[in-house]
């Protein structure tokens, strides 16, 4: 464990907590893409299948349980409890355009052709693009609530910090996983446009408005 | 280069 990865995990945790707080306090899921949350849930389910078979550390297990339960809870809140506030008309990104290419790529490009490894690889590829429905929804509505912007900033930062973690592990531990690193770079790059808007607007106290 | 070790990450 290094500082980059720890701070990265804490950013990830903060993002999920921020999202739950937003939903709970505003009693609304307005502006949130249920599809992205479904994809994140799928990422955790396919990645943490070894939750009970492969014990790494108490920290690892606790975080996996939290990520799994919170992502499932978020999907539940969006599609049942606060369904009335779900903006389905703007959450129209076709999930199959992400699921099918990621599944095909995971079958073709992986480290080992075994069910667990292919599912892990699928979750890595899917996580890289899972935010697209949310970013697409913001581009359609043209704005995002401030707390949703903070959520996205924390979520984007987590994988950016993981890239630093992979650099660190490459130089000091001679560990390197090209699949995780390439997908992580793609994932972080997808947030760049949002990072620019967040830093130039939200941090200036303005609401996140996309140029019409 | 051992890529399996990345499985200790979240």
Automatic annotation (TrEMBL), chain A:
Molecular function GO terms recorded: ER retention sequence binding
InterPro entries cross-referenced by the UniProt entry: ER_ret_rcpt
Transmembrane segments: 62-80, 92-113, 119-139, 151-172, 178-199
GO CC entries: endoplasmic reticulum membrane
Keyword Endoplasmic reticulum: yes
Keyword Repeat: no
Similarity comment: family membership: Belongs to the ERD2 family.
GO BP of this protein: protein retention in ER lumen; protein transport; vesicle-mediated transport
Species of origin: Bugula neritina
Pfam families referenced in this protein's UniProt entry, alphabetically: ER_lumen_recept
Full protein name: ER lumen protein-retaining receptor
Coiled-coil region list: none
UniProt keyword annotations, A-Z: Endoplasmic reticulum, ER-Golgi transport, Membrane, Protein transport, Receptor, Transmembrane, Transmembrane helix, Transport
Subcellular location: Endoplasmic reticulum membrane
Membrane topology: Multi-pass membrane protein
């Amino acid at each position: 464990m290094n500082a980059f990865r720890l701070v990265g995990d804490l950013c990830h945790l903060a993002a999920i907590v921020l999202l739950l707080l937003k939903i709970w306090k505003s009693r609304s899921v307005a502006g949130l893409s249920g599809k992205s949350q479904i994809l994140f849930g799928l990422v955790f389910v396919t990645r943490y299948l070894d939750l009970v078979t492969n014990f790494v550390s108490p920290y690892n297990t606790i975080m996996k349980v939290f990520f799994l339960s919170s992502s499932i809870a978020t999907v539940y809140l969006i599609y049942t409890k606060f369904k009335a506030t779900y903006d389905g008309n703007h959450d129209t990104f076709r999930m199959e355009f992400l699921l099918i290419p990621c599944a095909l790529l995971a079958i073709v490009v992986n480290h080992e052709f075994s069910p667990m490894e292919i599912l892990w690889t699928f979750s890595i590829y899917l996580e890289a693009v899972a935010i697209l429905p949310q970013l697409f929804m913001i581009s359609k509505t043209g704005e995002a609530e401030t707390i949703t912007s903070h959520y996205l900033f924390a979520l984007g930062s987590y994988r950016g910090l993981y890239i630093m973690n992979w650099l660190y592990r490459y130089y000091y531990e001679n560990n390197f996983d090209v699949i995780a690193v390439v997908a992580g770079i793609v994932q972080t790059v997808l947030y760049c446009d949002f990072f620019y808007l967040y830093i130039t607007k939200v941090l200036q106290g303005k609401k996140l408005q996309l140029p019409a | 280069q051992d890529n399996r070790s990345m499985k200790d990450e979240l």
